């Protein structure tokens, strides 16, 4: 339930950010799109975007700093992993990436919404991990109605209509075709992977994960390099 709640919280953040981008209220993000200083630097299509990484593992909590300034912080390889996932959202063109360590602890109804994107190693770790995302194709007016049990909020992925509405318009054929492409890619069948991912891309224009995998395979003309062993290395942080 803890992981379900964590994913639900980040989905709510993404929904709230997107709705605020289109709200011109004085306390909403939409006001910045009309600020002449923002327009001069970023143009007329300015919106606030954020990327998030979710991972599960131990961490040490403690105070770091001096007698003049102290900050609470969390230290561990798992904290670094979450930071790597957050940074990698830019490479895949998605706002949320989750590791298999996190996804394996989600409930079945929550996992059913996710899409497997890739299997990678990141800087600072030699252990391959699977990457997942939650596709949002429709922004709902609000997300955040939860039930409470023992004073704690409880996300209900099996029955929450608002969560289901987030994927309105996401066709099953696309997810199945993309999934087949990923499986071909990981199994070194890059010719078949190319075919499936190009079909998936035609079904969902501008899909970042499709472009990411196709561009990676294109570097070697869709022939797996000799040291490819079912995962690839993410070079940047």
List the helices and strands and how they pair.
Elements: H1 2-21, H2 36-42, E1 52-54, E2 60-65, E3 70-75, H3 77-92, E4 96-99, H4 100-103, H5 108-111, E5 114-121, E6 129-134, E7 147-149, E8 152-154, H6 161-165, H7 172-186, H8 190-203, H9 208-218, E9 232-233
Parallel strand pairs: 1-4, 5-9
Antiparallel strand pairs: 2-3, 4-6, 5-6, 7-8
Helix pairs in contact: 7-8, 8-9
Strand order within the widest sheet? 1-4-6-5-9
How large a portion of the residues is in β-strands, by DSSP E? Answer: 15-25%
**By helix and strand content, what is the structural category?**
alpha/beta
Largest sheet: 5 strands, mixed
H/E series: HHEEEHEHHEEEEHHHHE
Task: Give unreliable regions as ranges.
Answer: none
The N- to C-terminal Cα distance equals: 30 Å
Helix content: 40-55%
Count of helical regions: 9
Question: What's the average pLDDT?
Answer: 92
Count of β-strands: 9
| Whole-angstrom Rg | 20 Å
Global morphology: globular
How would you describe this protein?
With 237 residues, this protein is an alpha/beta fold. Helices cover 41% and strands 17% of the residues. It is built from nine helices and nine strands. The chain has a five-stranded mixed sheet with strand order 1-4-6-5-9. A two-stranded antiparallel sheet has the order 2-3. The longest helix is centred in the N-terminal third of the chain and has 20 residues. It is globular and about 50 Å long. The model has no long low-confidence stretch (mean pLDDT 92).
């Amino acid at each position: 339930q803890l992981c379900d709640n964590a994913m639900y919280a980040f989905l709510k953040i993404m929904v709230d950010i997107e709705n605020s981008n289109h709200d011109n209220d004085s306390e909403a993000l939409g006001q910045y799109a009309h600020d002449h200083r923002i327009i001069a630097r970023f143009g007329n299509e300015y919106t606030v975007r954020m990327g998030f990484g979710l991972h599960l593992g131990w961490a040490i909590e403690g105070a770091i700093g001096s007698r003049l300034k102290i900050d609470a912080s969390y230290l561990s390889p798992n904290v670094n992993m979450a930071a790597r996932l957050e940074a990698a959202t830019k490479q895949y063109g998605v706002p949320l990436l989750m590791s298999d360590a996190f996804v394996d602890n989600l409930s079945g109804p929550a996992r059913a919404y996710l899409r497997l994107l890739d299997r990678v190693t990141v800087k600072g770790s030699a252990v391959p991990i699977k990457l997942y995302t939650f596709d949002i194709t429709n922004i709902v007016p609000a997300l955040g109605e939860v039930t409470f049990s023992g004073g704690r909020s409880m996300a209900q992925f099996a029955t929450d209509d608002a969560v289901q509405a987030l994927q309105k318009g996401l066709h099953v054929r696309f997810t199945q075709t993309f999934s087949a492409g990923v499986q071909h890619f990981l199994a070194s069948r890059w010719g078949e992977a190319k075919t499936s991912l190009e079909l998936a891309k035609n079904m969902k224009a501008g899909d970042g994960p499709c472009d990411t995998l196709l561009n990676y395979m294109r570097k070697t003309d869709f022939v797996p390099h000799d040291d490819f062993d079912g995962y690839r290395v993410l070079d940047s942080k």
